[in-house]
Amino acid sequence: MNRAQLLDRIATDPKVLVGKPAIRGMRISVEQILTALAAGVPTSDLLDDYPELKMADIQAVLTYATERISE
Question: CA 20, CA 29: separation in Å to the nearest integer?
């Protein structure tokens, strides 16, 4: 999956999580996933805890964060 396709998985909508960047319009925020990863939660645990989450979503979160800090 290329960078643009990954970034398309992240959306901001004022009706979802008060406009925080979220994964595919779900109520799982970029911040939530980044916080878990920073705390050492294994990717496999995140995928188990959130069955609707896909590996590409985690890659999208990391890509999104990279884009944001490079601005």
Answer: 7
Give the pLDDT confidence of 16-54 residue by residue, as tens digits: 999 999 999 899 999 999 999 999 999 999 999 999 999
Q: Which residues pair with 22 in a beta bridge?
A: 11, 29
The model's pTM: 0.92
Q: Which domains does the chain have, with CATH numbers?
A: 3-70 (1.10.10.10)
The token duo for 48 is: 């188990």
Let me know: does 21 contact 11? Beta carbons within 8 Å.
yes
Which tokens in the block code for residue 51? 């069955």
